[in-house]
């Protein structure tokens, strides 16, 4: 049988999805308790939502609050559902759609940054070239021997993508990225 | 309370917390990891433990108990298989919004993660099938967590929660905190008061509606008896017709003038036609489930939709609505009625005259008609006679899942809420019998009947032993057609009548089965014998299995075949073999 792909959702979703898919960055303030990250991730996998990037860390120690930053993609309807479903999780305090707020503030996106550690090994001209390029990308050298460098680079994801691509022919060994940390511009908090 | 008598063991804390949360009955099954709690149960009289025969039975019994009383149902299971057997009722309670607290034993904290005997990751396994769950690692957190479990299970949109308690925590000594003093989790504060402006917008739409309909669901039942009373008042004040989902039956009486019958896949013609043609739909405590909406792009195309729901994630999930009102049904209906009565001039009911005429026409189509037989009992007739036989009794009905469930919903008229317990969302075969035991434990003098099928009843038949032990005189009324009838119906609709594995060969002799358990077995095969047999069944004050032999090949109509719209129903008199075979096209075939 040539079963056609059905969008996720009810068994009756036979109408074609007409909305366009867009990217959103969500900030989720949660109680830092065991299993809270599993609840969030389980919600995404269980309901068939996308996670493009996810970072989590305790941000307010006295109150045991963690901030989870999620970059997700979906139609406006799905994005509205994601927010509502996240808010249903018991230890979730608040879900803030940073992308929408950024637009309301007149910006295209919130400030979104990633840190990457990039290990490059080599010698001779390639090694010099790697160091020169790292300098022009404002990457720091965090560790080095005569055979390798570990560069530490901070920036937008696209910049890191570009840096990693450039390092590939110059002896790239491995990459570790943090995922996106995000915050909106201006004096107001989330 | 003095400083010393709030010091107690974890197991004592469990029992004290249950008592302080008003628990009188718990349903459970012992095992190694809950022995300290069972030892405490043995030494007290405030909480009665009902011993089931399988943990799934404990969960469904607690669900039935909760649904029939409005209280939280409580189950107690051991670690490992005890907890995994609880998964089905937990998911069932999640989908039908039933408040359920499941206490589970766990291996000692020092053994967690070591693949110990009867260990499983209970909080991991139950995370997606609960509203929330906890692993208690410190006995001093135990009282607070159990109180939170009760708070979360029954507030907001009700649902199941799990408290997983390692055995060493049950033995350890800690401090007991009473419910009124426990610290609540600040992140969970459900909104119950509806926005008055949203309600005003709803009242405005309703007052102008020419073709309105009230579409109500389980949320009305969950909100409590006052919600059903207000709903009746709203129907009287507005003059609107009303339909309900499977879960909401009874909140408006089936004998009421405005009642259109259940809607959805096996709903009445008038209810579905009215849903399709309405101009204002007022959805109260229902969630636009796929059994209700049918084809989404043809769902009530010309209507403005008002949606009252306590769960914000239900809004715009399947169907986009015009006026969402988030909050508790009782509070919202109170405000809605206040505003309706305060309208500058009472809306003229005459504006709906044409609408009611259309409804009269649709009702005349008589979509629940069926051909009577003098030789065999028609299943629809069996339900109608059962309904008649129970008049004047304090009756509660549970069901399993399948054709018998739909016939019960169609032909048994419910007059009051909390009288009808069925597995709507998950569709759990095996739900009805243990649920009936739970209802009977809550209402020992009531007439409790599980309307069952010959296949479903075998999924939790072991609970007959429980019913006999506790003198719970539950009546199991089996519509026995020797098929998994709904599976067969779909095979006829979708799969060229190839009845793969839907015929129940080697059925047990249900009369002897009942007798083997120490219950009463009865059988009826002729329509003329049915009334006398039903009277006898009701008169028996012991558990009964009533094997009602019905026409084997009857199917459940009317029906909206998968992928069709509300105004595209398959009616019983049109359901010829050919129509059945061609009812669903290739696209609809992929749907469930």
Plain-language structure description:
Chain A has helices at residues 36-46, 76-88, 98-104, 124-136, 157-167; strands at residues 22-31, 53-60, 65-74, 92-97, 111-121, 140-144, 148-155, 172-177, 181-183. Chain A has 190 residues and is α+β, with helices and mostly antiparallel strands. Chain A has two domains: 20-104, ACT domain (Alpha-Beta Plaits); 111-183, Alpha-Beta Plaits, CATH 3.30.70. The radius of gyration of chain A is 20 Å and the shape is elongated. By secondary structure, chain B is an alpha/beta fold. Chain B has 24 helices and 20 strands. At the A-B interface, α1 and α2 of A face β6 of B.
In short:
The complex is a heterodimer of chains A (190) and B (592). Chain A is built from five helices and nine strands. Chain A has helices spanning 36-46, 76-88, 98-104, 124-136, 157-167, and strands at residues 22-31, 53-60, 65-74, 92-97, 111-121, 140-144, 148-155, 172-177, 181-183.
List the helices and strands and how they pair.
The complex is a heterodimer of chains A (190) and B (592).
Chain A: E1 22-31, H1 36-46, E2 53-60, E3 65-74, H2 76-88, E4 92-97, H3 98-104, E5 111-121, H4 124-136, E6 140-144, E7 148-155, H5 157-167, E8 172-177, E9 181-183
Antiparallel strand pairs in A: 1-3, 1-4, 2-3, 5-7, 5-8, 5-9, 6-7
Chain B: E1 7-9, H1 10-20, E2 25-28, H2 35-42, E3 48-51, H3 55-69, E4 73-77, H4 81-85, H5 87-96, E5 100-106, H6 122-126, E6 132-135, H7 139-154, E7 160-166, H8 167-171, E8 173-175, H9 196-208, E9 212-216, H10 218-222, H11 225-238, E10 242-244, E11 259-262, H12 269-277, E12 280-284, H13 290-293, E13 304-309, E14 323-326, H14 329-341, H15 353-364, H16 379-390, E15 395-399, H17 403-411, E16 420-421, H18 432-442, E17 447-453, H19 464-469, E18 475-480, H20 485-494, H21 510-517, E19 520-524, H22 530-539, E20 544-549, H23 577-581, H24 586-589
Parallel strand pairs in B: 2-3, 2-4, 4-5, 5-7, 6-7, 9-10, 9-12, 10-11, 12-13, 13-14, 15-16, 15-17, 17-18, 18-20, 19-20
Antiparallel strand pairs in B: 1-8
Helix pairs in contact in B: 1-2, 1-7, 3-5, 3-18, 9-14, 11-14, 12-15, 16-17, 16-22
